[in-house]
Amino acid sequence: MDTVQAKKAKLLKEMGEREQHLKSGRLVVESSLDVVFAIDTTGSMESYIHEVRDNIIKIMEEVFEFTQGVRMGVIAYKDHGDEGEDEFYLTKILPLTFDKKEIVEFLRSPDLHIGVGGDGAEAVECALYDAANLNWGLSKTPKVIVLVGDKPAHGVIDSFRACPRMKDYRQEVEVIKSKGIKIYPILCNNIHETESSFRWMASETDGTFIYLDDITSLSDILTGICLKETGKLLEYRCKLLEYGDKVRLEHIVLLN
Which H or E run contains 99? Predict the structure, then answer.
């Protein structure tokens, strides 16, 4: 009897541990989509960050209405020169997870501190490195990095040596490409050097470059990217058309 009870207890423990791993996304699994939002959290991006924070629940609800089994992750990044600010982090990471509550809590946490930022490059290369090394799913799972920022990586307008971690954004893009991950860069300004490097990232990984000229369209674009990669964008458009929501339809027209 003791042996049976012991085996039962062991089985229940293993099932519980697996459930926690699945819930957190830290187990390599098959999902309908793995998407990581890499977001510049320096001062110039404050309004965009708030747009994502305010609408993350709506984004998830609309994505999950059409597609189940989506895992989301987040990488918030700043720059190496910001170490002197209070509550500094270079990157803050939420691994890919199915847990909606965990995603919301991460994005709305006060720990996701918005920095001062400067006029130069940001640590995009480090965000790409961390994104490439996340807990991505099986080979056939669609994989996407949505890069939301306004400044280029180090090495575009300054020296590659400006990154103390010695990361090269070109090498990180190659690693990302080798893993079958697409990059969707969303540009939040009109800096030529940022645009050219962002367009290159999209071209190299078979993603799509998006120029954001209206901040209120950001949440719709994030939703649209997820649904495009799961083959549900047409259904989403039909829903918006049914409700006569021409504004939101125009927000995702760039995903054609």
Answer: none
